[in-house]
Amino acid sequence: MKTRVAIVGVSGTMGRLVSGLVERSDEYELVAGLNSKSDLSEMLAAEIVIDLTLPGVSQSVVDFAVDHGLRVLVGTSGWSQNRIDALSARLAGQNEIGVVIIPNFSIGSVIATGLSVLVARFFDSIEIVEAHRAGKVDSPSGTAVRTAELIGRARAEIGPVSASHTDQRARGQQVSSIPVHSLRLDGMLARQDVIFGGAGETLTISHNTLSAASYERGILLALAATRTAVGVTVGLDQIIDLGLGEASK
């Protein structure tokens, strides 16, 4: 039997991509496609809700779905750790509801983040530069925020990174003590560079998204995991084994 899926944000770029994947799949059935004019009650025919909306809308979509006992796959960025913690507390003890939050569906991006976490304890000077299309409404990106937060956790016993003059606006936004710089450019899809500086050397871990096709495999993996998800799961690295040990946890 196919799993019934509703997509909220179906008319956007990611919405169109995901709806195409669902419709071509033998495992899922698209029963509702919601846009900004739709009533959220239209999702109630589904078993899984895929949220591909905007940061300011995503919370209400997830709340409505959870209130009605639906599992949710969130592909919308902008979920802060405080919001995630609050959602985790809300779902604690519930064994039939789960929310999977994926900052980036690209497997290459997740691997780059995991490698950055591995490297982080060897360098005290670390900065992130991320670039996306001009129309992306939030910055820093969810991927950059998660990368910085995971690096911060990996350095918990070492201490914060060394970053000078962070009181100056041009030095970026600090996330877990790491300066994050955002570029929004026409012609750009997505890129992230994590730059490490040490005595006499630098190391850069880069990931470039050249086509939305890079998201397809990760979307299907995340959707499969959402079928049985309980509680809150954050990141594709929590769904697949990247072979990086605890680095990406």
TrEMBL record:
A GO CC term attached to the entry: cytosol
UniProt keywords, alphabetically: Amino-acid biosynthesis, Cytoplasm, Diaminopimelate biosynthesis, Lysine biosynthesis, NAD, NADP, Oxidoreductase
Pfam families, sorted: DapB_C (PF05173), DapB_N (PF01113)
Occurrences of domain Dihydrodipicolinate reductase N-terminal (ranges): 4-105
InterPro entries: DapB_C, DapB_N, DapB_N_CS, DHDPR_bac, NAD(P)-bd_dom_sf
Pathway named in the protein's UniProt entry: Amino-acid biosynthesis; L-lysine biosynthesis via DAP pathway; (S)-tetrahydrodipicolinate from L-aspartate: step 4/4
The enzyme's E.C. designation: 1.17.1.8
Start and end residues of each Dihydrodipicolinate reductase C-terminal domain: 115-228
Reactions listed under catalytic activity: (S)-2,3,4,5-tetrahydrodipicolinate + NAD(+) + H2O = (2S,4S)-4-hydroxy-2,3,4,5-tetrahydrodipicolinate + NADH + H(+); (S)-2,3,4,5-tetrahydrodipicolinate + NADP(+) + H2O = (2S,4S)-4-hydroxy-2,3,4,5-tetrahydrodipicolinate + NADPH + H(+)
Top-level enzyme category: oxidoreductase
GO biological-process terms attached to the record: diaminopimelate biosynthetic process; lysine biosynthetic process via diaminopimelate
GO MF entries: 4-hydroxy-tetrahydrodipicolinate reductase
NCBIfam families, per the entry: dapB
Family classification: Belongs to the DapB family.
Protein known as: 4-hydroxy-tetrahydrodipicolinate reductase
Lineage per the UniProt record: Bacteria, Bacillati, Actinomycetota, Actinomycetes, Micrococcales
